[in-house]
Design a protein that fits this description.
Number of domains: 2
Order of helices and strands: HHEHHEHEEHHHEHEEHE
Helix content: 25-40%
CATH topology of the largest domain: Alpha-Beta Plaits
Radius of gyration: 22 Å
Distance between the termini: 71 Å
Number of helices: 10
CATH class of the largest domain: Alpha Beta
Structural class: alpha+beta
Length: 280
């Protein structure tokens, strides 16, 4: 009987120690890639996504060593949005493929607009992790860039917040006519990171196409997923506040050449949508 009581006591101590460790470890949010981008834009914080799996021993090592470090915990909690994505889950696998993750653990850092600014496909200890977090905790990675076009040119639609319709005259000469053939357009749709032929834009001027403006956080998540899946291009989120209301500007890009933007605009038109060229 005494041995049984002693065993129960040890189990209770172990349980309490495990619970205490969890309370003093990084509390990762469980969000999809699109949800994480939208939340980071809302918070105007850089985003850290930790791609992991239960069977990944290096991932487990980081959980037990790196993410229990008090300085790492404090820095992530106060300065970043920290998200963990399980690649064995259906949505997690899709997000892994979308981000081109090949190894575990993989740590991707996004700025507040949803662009990857760095990735680490390795095991990081607490000191290395802290160095990375400090390096990318910059004002530029916290604030979504404003477009060179005035916000009033964008029409917020009905309460259902469907895709914002934008005056085609704002697009300019880059949206000149091309062959409007579905097969031709599909052939020009490229995965993220791949480029069309054509002169590159000046490196100092990254261009994107604004595809919508929304006031609903939930709708932003759905629309990011829709545009990225439909048109094979990353979508950034720029959060701007006006008269106490936050509006989320969805911007596809960046594009490397005018030809890419032209193709994207025509693809939008095929689906009855319009876009506005902006400078990132």
């Amino acid at each position: 009987m005494k041995k049984l009581s002693l065993l129960r006591g040890l189990l209770l101590v172990l349980t309490l120690l495990t619970a205490s460790q969890k309370l003093h470890a990084v509390q990762f949010a469980r969000l999809s890639l699109a949800e994480a981008k939208a939340r980071a834009a809302q918070l105007q914080r850089p985003l850290l996504i930790h791609f992991a799996a239960n069977w990944c021993l290096p991932c487990q090592w980081m959980d037990k060593n790196t993410f229990v470090d008090p300085e790492v915990l404090t820095y992530l909690s106060n300065q970043y949005l920290a998200v963990k994505i399980d690649v064995d889950e259906v949505q997690g696998y899709a997000d892994k493929e979308a981000c081109g993750v090949k190894y575990l653990p993989s740590l991707l850092i996004f700025n507040a607009t949803g662009i990857v600014v760095s990735r680490y496909e390795e095991t990081l200890d607490a000191a290395q992790m802290l160095e990375v977090l400090r390096k990318y905790d910059t004002p530029a990675n916290r604030i979504a860039p404003r477009s060179t076009y005035a916000v009033p040119t964008v029409k917020i639609n009905t309460p259902s917040n469907t895709v914002a319709q934008i005056d085609q005259s704002e697009i300019g000469t880059i949206s000149a006519d091309v062959e409007n053939d579905p097969a031709h357009l599909d052939a020009q749709r490229l995965p993220i990171g791949q480029t069309n032929a054509g002169p590159a834009l000046p490196s100092s001027r990254k261009m994107g196409i604004q595809v919508g403006v929304y006031s609903s956080y939930e709708n932003v998540i759905r629309q990011v997923q829709y545009f990225e899946k439909k048109f094979y291009k990353a979508v950034q989120i720029s959060a701007q506040t006006k008269n106490g209301q936050t509006y989320y500007h969805l911007i596809a890009g960046p594009f490397e050449t005018p030809a890419q933007m032209q193709t994207y605009l025509i693809a939008l038109q095929r689906d009855g949508l319009k876009g506005l060229i902006v400078t990132l």
